[in-house]
C-alpha cells in the first residue's frame, strides 16, 4: 500500500481522535459479551461480524500509529500497518454493520461500535475504499439539491400529482403547501409519495400550519461515512427551514434522517438552529393527546405489533410515543420481546439494503426479528423507518409471515375520525 | 425510441423512492458500455432521482416520461 494512502488514512484517524474514541481504542477487555448482542454474529458465527472484531481492525491501525508500544513492538501489541488484506477485512466488517448499537447496550464499558465503524468508514474513504453505491447515492442527492432549477418543476409537479391522488383516495381536498414562509412546521419527507400522503392528511385534520420541503430527508452521505457530504445534504432542508422561518423541522418516518437532523447536524454546522427538530410520531402523539385530531380507538381490528427502529429507538430515545399512538387506534396490540433498548435490529439499517454484496448476511441476520414477529401472532407490523420496512418486507416474503408492514402514520390516517 | 435496442428491462413498479434509483444503479454494470436499461417505476420521486443519479455518475437518461401513470426511463451506460 502506498505511503501516501497510509498517511491519508492515519490522518483521518488522527482528525477523529478524541477522548471518547481513544477510550474505545484502549478499553476493550475482550470479554466477548457483544457476540450475543449482534444480530449478524448470532446469525452467522462469522468473526468478521463480531462487534469487538470490527473495532479490533481499527485498533490495530491505532496501536501502530498512536501508541509507543505498538510502534516499537507491533507483533507483541497486535499493531498493524494497513495493507490490502486489512482494508478488505475492514471494508467487510464496517459496511456490513447496521449501526444498531445493540452491542453498545450490552458492552460493560459501553464501547460504541457504531461510532468506531463511522470512523472506520472515514479511514476506508481515505483509502479509496468507500462503498461505491452509497457514494453514488450521496452524490445524486447533492446533484439534485445543487441543480434545483433543473428539478424544481419536476418535484413541484410531483406534489401536485400527490394532491390529485389524495383527492381521488379521500374525496377531500388536502393541500400540499410548498415554500410557505412563516409556517409553523417544515415537514421533510422522503422522495416517495408514501411519506407525504399520510402526513398531509394528518396535518390537514389537525389544522396545522405546515409546508413541505422540496428536499428529502434520506442522507446517504451519513451511511457512506462522510460527515462533510452528510452535512451538505442536510444543509438543504436546514437552510430552507431558516429561510422560511419555521418554528420546527419535522422529520418523516425515517430512522437515520431523524438522527442526522436531531443529533448530529448542529455539531457539524457548529451553530444552534433557530427551530426545534422533531420526529413526525412525536408530533402525531401530541395531536392525539391534545385532541387536535380524533382517532377511532377500534379502527384497526387486526393484531398489531411495533418494530423499534434502532435509529429512532435505541439511538433516538423514542419508544413510548409510537406505542401510545398504535394503542390509541388498535385495541389488539402485542409488543415484541425483547423491545425498546434491547430490541433486535431487523438487519436492514446503515444503508445495507442498498448494498447487494451484503444481501446474504442481511437476510440471514433478520432471523431474530422474524422469530420476534412470529411470536406476537400479529398480522400488521407498524414500522416507522423506511430501511427497516424494506428489510422486513423482504423477510416477510422469504419467511412467508403474511404481514402488512406499514408506517405508523398511515395507520393513523386510516383511523382518523372526520371533524363534524 | 421504440426501435431502440434494450439490453435490460427493469420492472420497478411498486418500489418506493429511492429504491428505483438504487436498482438502476445496481444494474448499470449489467449492461455493456453503450447499452440501455429500460426501467418502469410507479413512484413519482423517481422522475427526479434517476436523472440526478445519471448526471452525477456520468450516465445518460435518453427518456424520462410519464406514460399511463407509470414513469418510463431509458438509461444509457456511458462509462
Tell me what you see in this structure:
- The complex is a heterodimer of chains A (420) and B (79).
- With 420 residues, chain A is mainly alpha-helical.
- Chain A folds into three domains: 3-130, Fumarate Reductase Iron-sulfur Protein, Chain B, domain 2, CATH 1.10.1060; 134-289, Rossmann fold (3-Layer(aba) Sandwich); 304-415, no CATH class.
- Chain A is 54% helix and 6% strand.
- Chain A is built from 20 helices and seven strands.
- In chain A, the strands form two sheets. Chain A has a four-stranded parallel β-sheet with strand order 2-1-3-4. A three-stranded parallel β-sheet of chain A has the order 5-6-7, sandwiched between helices.
- In chain A, helix 9 (132-146) runs parallel beside helix 13 (227-244), helix 15 packs across helix 16 and helix 16 (320-329) packs parallel to helix 20.
- Chain A is globular.
- By secondary structure, chain B is α+β, with helices and mostly antiparallel strands.
- A four-stranded mixed β-sheet of chain B has the order 1-2-4-3, covered by helices on one side.
Helix content of chain A: 40-55%
Enumerate the strands of the largest sheet of chain B in spatial order, edge to edge or round the barrel. Answer: 1-2-4-3
The DSSP helix count of chain A reads 20
Q: Look at the helices and sheets of chain B and give the structural class.
A: alpha+beta
Question: Could you tell me the mean pLDDT of chain B?
Answer: 92
**Oligomeric description of these chains:** heterodimer
Unreliable spans of chain A = none
Shape of chain A: globular
Largest sheet of chain B: 4 strands, mixed
Amino acid at each position: 500500500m502506498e505511503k501516501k494512502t497510509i498517511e491519508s488514512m492515519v490522518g483521518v484517524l488522527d482528525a477523529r481522535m478524541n477522548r471518547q474514541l481513544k477510550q474505545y481504542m484502549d478499553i476493550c477487555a475482550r470479554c466477548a459479551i457483544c457476540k450475543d448482542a449482534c444480530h449478524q454474529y448470532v446469525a452467522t458465527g462469522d468473526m468478521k461480524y463480531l462487534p469487538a472484531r470490527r473495532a479490533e481492525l481499527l485498533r490495530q491501525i491505532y496501536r501502530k500509529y498512536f501508541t509507543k508500544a505498538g510502534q516499537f513492538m507491533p507483533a507483541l501489541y497486535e499493531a498493524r500497518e494497513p495493507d490490502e488484506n486489512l482494508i478488505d477485512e475492514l471494508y467487510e466488517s464496517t459496511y456490513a454493520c447496521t449501526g444498531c448499537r445493540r452491542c453498545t447496550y450490552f458492552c460493560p464499558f459501553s464501547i460504541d461500535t457504531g461510532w468506531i465503524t463511522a470512523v472506520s468508514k472515514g479511514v476506508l474513504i481515505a483509502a479509496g475504499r468507500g462503498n461505491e453505491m452509497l457514494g453514488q447515492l450521496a452524490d445524486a442527492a447533492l446533484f439534485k439539491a445543487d441543480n434545483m432549477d433543473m428539478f424544481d418543476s419536476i418535484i413541484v409537479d410531483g406534489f401536485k400529482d400527490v394532491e390529485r391522488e389524495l383527492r381521488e383516495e379521500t374525496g377531500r381536498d388536502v393541500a400540499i403547501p410548498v415554500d410557505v414562509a412563516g409556517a409553523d412546521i417544515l415537514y421533510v419527507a422522503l422522495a416517495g409519495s408514501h411519506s407525504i400522503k399520510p402526513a398531509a392528511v394528518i396535518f390537514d385534520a389537525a389544522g396545522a400550519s405546515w409546508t413541505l420541503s422540496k428536499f428529502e430527508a434520506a442522507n446517504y452521505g451519513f451511511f457512506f461515512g462522510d460527515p462533510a457530504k452528510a452535512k451538505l445534504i442536510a444543509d438543504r432542508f436546514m437552510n430552507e427551514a431558516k429561510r422560511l422561518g419555521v418554528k420546527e423541522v419535522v422529520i418523516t418516518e425515517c430512522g437515520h434522517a431523524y438522527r442526522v437532523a436531531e443529533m448530529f447536524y448542529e455539531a457539524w454546522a457548529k451553530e444552534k438552529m433557530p427551530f426545534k427538530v422533531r420526529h413526525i410520531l412525536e408530533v402525531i402523539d401530541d395531536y392525539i393527546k391534545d385532541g387536535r385530531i380524533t382517532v377511532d380507538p377500534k379502527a384497526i381490528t387486526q393484531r398489531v405489533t411495533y418494530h423499534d427502529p434502532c435509529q429512532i429507538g435505541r439511538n433516538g430515545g423514542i419508544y413510548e410515543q409510537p406505542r401510545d399512538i398504535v394503542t390509541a387506534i388498535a385495541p389488539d396490540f402485542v409488543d415484541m420481546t425483547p423491545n425498546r433498548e434491547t430490541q433486535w435490529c431487523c438487519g436492514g439499517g446503515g444503508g445495507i439494503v442498498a448494498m447487494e454484496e451484503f444481501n446474504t448476511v442481511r437476510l440471514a441476520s433478520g432471523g431474530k426479528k422474524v422469530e420476534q414477529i412470529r411470536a406476537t401472532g400479529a398480522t400488521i407490523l407498524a414500522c416507522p423507518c423506511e430501511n427497516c420496512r424494506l428489510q422486513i418486507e423482504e423477510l416477510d416474503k422469504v419467511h412467508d409471515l403474511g404481514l402488512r408492514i406499514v408506517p405508523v402514520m398511515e395507520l393513523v390516517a386510516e383511523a382518523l375520525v372526520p371533524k363534524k | 425510441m421504440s426501435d431502440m435496442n434494450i439490453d435490460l428491462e427493469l420492472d420497478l413498479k411498486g418500489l418506493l423512492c429511492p429504491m428505483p434509483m438504487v436498482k438502476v444503479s445496481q444494474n448499470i454494470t449489467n449492461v455493456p458500455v453503450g447499452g440501455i436499461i429500460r426501467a418502469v417505476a410507479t413512484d413519482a420521486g423517481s422522475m427526479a432521482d434517476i436523472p440526478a443519479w445519471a448526471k452525477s455518475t456520468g450516465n445518460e437518461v435518453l427518456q424520462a416520461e410519464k406514460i399511463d401513470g407509470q414513469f418510463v426511463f431509458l438509461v444509457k451506460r456511458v462509462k
